[in-house]
Amino acid sequence: MRSPLPVARIRRALASRPRRVVAAVVVVVLVAAALVWAARPQRPDFRTESAVVTVRSGPAGDQPVDLDTTLYLPGDASARHRVPAVLLAHGFGGTKESVRSDAEDLVARGYAVLTWTARGFGRSGGEIHLDSPDYEVRDAQRLLDRLAARPDIRLDAAGDPRVGVVGGSYGGGLALLLAAQDRRVDAIVPMITWNDLSRAFLPESTGKAPTEGVFKKGWAGIFFGGGGNAGSGPAGLAGTGAAQPEGAPASAGAPSPQPGAGPGTGPGRAPAGAADPSCGRFAADVCAAYLRIATSGRADGAAVELLRRSSPAKVLDRIKAPTLLVQGEADTLFPLTEADANARGIAAAGTPVRVAWFTGGHDGGAGPTSDSDRVKFLTAQWLDHYVKGDGEAPGDSFTFSRIAGFDALDRGLVATGFRTADYPGVTGQGRREVTLSGPAQPVANPPNGNPAAISSVPFAGALGSLLDGVAGDIPGQHARFQSAPLADPVDVVGAPTVRIRAASATGEAVLFVKLYDVDPQGAATLPDGLVAPVRLTGLPRTVEAAQPVTVTLPAIVRRIEAGHRLRVVVATSDQAYATPAEPTVHTVALGDGPLVLPTVDASPIPTTATVWRWVLVGLLAAIAVGLVVVVLVARRRHRRQDSSVHPAYAGVPLAVRNLRKEYADGFVAVSDVDFEVHPGQVVGLLGPNGAGKTTTLRVLMGLTQPTAGEIYVFGHRLVPGSPVLSRIGALVEGPGFLPHLSGLENLRAYWRATGRPWADAHFDEALEIAGLGDSVHRRTKNYSHGMRQRLAIAQAMLGLPELLVLDEPTDGLDPPQIAEMRRVLQRYATDGRAVLVSSHLLAEVEQTCTHAVVVNKGRIVASGPVEEIVGESPSVLFEVSDPDAARTVLDRLAGVRVLPDGDGALVVDTNGTARSEVVAELVRAGIGVDRVVPRRRLEDAFLALVGENSRGSGDR
């Protein structure tokens, strides 16, 4: 459609007001520039001091090591204005550069931030001892000493800096161990880290000791095998997900919960005396322990003790610094149970502790922006209160989040946060029991663990949930037990439990228990690729003699929708774990009792986006209410003005009087249209493209306002919102349906929207008209154009309106459907009803319509009965019951000749013989005569009226 304001008028307006326009443009530019400047993030005012410093650590505190450090200081930090400090530790395999952007965010909040490259990485010297209290932790203590000696750092006492410690993964473990070893630490925020390093790498889900655990060879191989080579660790522990580095921009002024960054930059070397060069810069005892476990697949007591020396589990009761524990739900390295154990141990000592779960982790990165922003806020709030001394105490409420869907703007994932007053642990506040079923099943342990099922791959997260068939759970190597479809949804928050029984000729089995969410179509999802490894010993040979054992499945946060099933899979292999090399067959069955799902009663956390969303909803609601008021007032005014009935047209379905439609740019689409449609008539509105037909129909349906003229429907003057519109059924400018609804549901939705009584609808007649059969129950997005057209015509006829207005009703229909439509329209124009049809198919108009209105260039050039417009003709078209018999009869009449181009009917040249005499002969012969029309076609008359080259006036 053309613009309602002509270009020439715009130019004249601009020419007449040049100064005003220029001034307006200047104002707009200045305002835009101010907004951009205000919204542009300002670089914080800070300075940095980088240095390689030598500290002394080791068991006796006398072994020197060089650490590569950078101190970030606020611009106003000085002896007169001392500032609190933060030790910011990087993830495994990272360097001080990994956390640069996080440091800049914290310094912008007024903290001095000390970052350093841990020993064994990058340009720092020494060997990797896995956060040993004698090495990495003492290194950090010496850095605290350096902060305490500075004149610009706030002190609690001589030698005691006001300091918090923040770190992810490797850095998170350091934060916990440092707080336990040094009382000078005032607050800590450990993220996605461990409680017991031996249990993290040797998990066992029935409660056995790590010496009986199942070796997590995938993560351990990356952690140890690549750690320290060339001065760097594995990128996967330094980054997350798709190698996203720690220190991605953190707008909330707190570190993002990511474990590290890419490889270090320094030229590392294997340490002297290392157990094996493949261990790179790992200390010899750590390397030797890894090699023993990796070779046998089992841990000895010495290896477990070494790993526990680097674990917070042994020293949680010594931590007095308020602790915010942030743990990722998408984490197959350090799952939620690690943070749960830390939280319980720290809280038992009376130390303030708060737990926050988020949707990221070692397998999921920082999670969606909405989720990482929440974690950044919690971190900044914690540090500001306990380190800086600002704000109220954050409290100990528990927060977690769940993926809610996709953002409508950028299609990124969105997480919804939830909050509850008390931390429920991984056991939840409530429980939902679900019954599983399935027989005892044999499962084969493959030789050397190959081929193995894939549940997760380091850095790739829940790959198993995207795989099916041989790549996921391998046939013959797993048993399935499944529930019935859930009657209502359940929000799982915590670690589910299930009881199983197992038997084996070897007396021992390593199994992997998984919980799948199965949708109604059968697609199964393994939440975050998490599995529960178990090692069962002392097993009988028959499953009937086996005792049930309780398996604690990984803690998850997931909504299981109604109609979904829960599936427990027990597999013998997993690519991420070490399994027995000897092939054997076990038998697995369900134990007594149901699958138990923990639940938490929590409330959603409002976010800035949520607040603005509600503001927008309120604004839109106000606009909608205003529009409704305007429409109601206008309709009431129209009703008051047009409640009378024009006596001349009271019984006329449609009277169009001197209709004119002129657009604002001067274009005249309809200049003078005047016609009537009477009961029992099927009137064809004809004209070339651009003649004004569609504009006339749009005015008729109230879709646009006429410039002049009147339209009456049964004597009521037609205006927008007029009640008389309910007596009109229409199909104008093509059908429009809701694609996710079926044809029948669309008809019902349309009728409900009209507000008319349900009893007034004629669904059976409408569906018969549509002729869609069973397809009426299919979604309309799968309809062909012809099917949608038929459904639209049925919709127009749904209330059996007294006036039916159709624009190109046969568009998209095949010949049999067109013939049926012709009969439908002819039958419809009975009992006082009338039909107005706009069509380009002149042959169909000639056979269907009783009357025609021919429009050309916005004016009527002819109107009246079709036979009058067609005129006299020497040949006549006969529609008869038996064409062959009729041809024999007519061949006997003198002078009468049957022409060959009848297209199935009889075209007869009467040669002066009266038509009535020809009809009488046919009737006397017992032949039924259905129709007699002049042979001169409507097309001939139409072309004579409008001209063969007419293109109309450019109707819109």
TrEMBL record:
The chain crosses the membrane at residues 611-634. Residues 240-255 have a biased composition (Low complexity). Gene3D superfamilies: alpha/beta hydrolase (3.40.50.1820), Galactose-binding domain-like (2.60.120.260), P-loop containing nucleotide triphosphate hydrolases (3.40.50.300). Signal peptide: none annotated. GO terms for molecular function: ATP binding; ATP hydrolysis activity; dipeptidyl-peptidase activity. SMART domains: AAA (SM00382), PepX_C (SM00939). Residues 654-882 form the ABC transporter domain. PROSITE patterns: ABC_TRANSPORTER_1, ABC_TRANSPORTER_2. Coiled coil: none annotated. It comes from the Bacteria. InterPro entries: AAA+_ATPase (IPR003593), AB_hydrolase_fold (IPR029058), ABC_transporter-like_ATP-bd (IPR003439), ABC_transporter-like_CS (IPR017871), Galactose-bd-like_sf (IPR008979), P-loop_NTPase (IPR027417), Xaa-Pro-like_dom (IPR000383), Xaa-Pro_dipept_C (IPR013736). Keywords: ATP-binding, Hydrolase, Membrane, Nucleotide-binding, Transmembrane, Transmembrane helix, Transport. Residues 235-275 are annotated as: Disordered. Belongs to the ABC transporter superfamily. This is ABC-2 type transport system ATP-binding protein. The lineage of its organism: Bacteria, Bacillati, Actinomycetota, Actinomycetes, Micromonosporales.
